[in-house]
Predict the 3D structure of the following.
Amino acid sequence: MTNEFYACRVCGAEQLDPPWGEDDQTPTYEICDCCGVEFGYEDMSVESIKDYRQKWVERGANWFRKKYKPEDWSLENQFQNIPEQYR
């Protein structure tokens, strides 16, 4: 990836490790702390990514693991981290 960090394809949350492996093709099946997507299951296609994102936002864009939510969190700013091909 070209970013300084790895981002969730659904919500743009920073990830410590690449959600889809170093080759960007091998899913880890880890869970995003922010939106709760399982990498490699619920984000298998651009269509499924957009559908998951829409439903997550409609439900209030709540953090899956609230203890990891930054105090100064901004959904709009985080969405800018989503790789272009998944927007």
User: Anything to note?
Assistant: The radius of gyration is 12 Å.
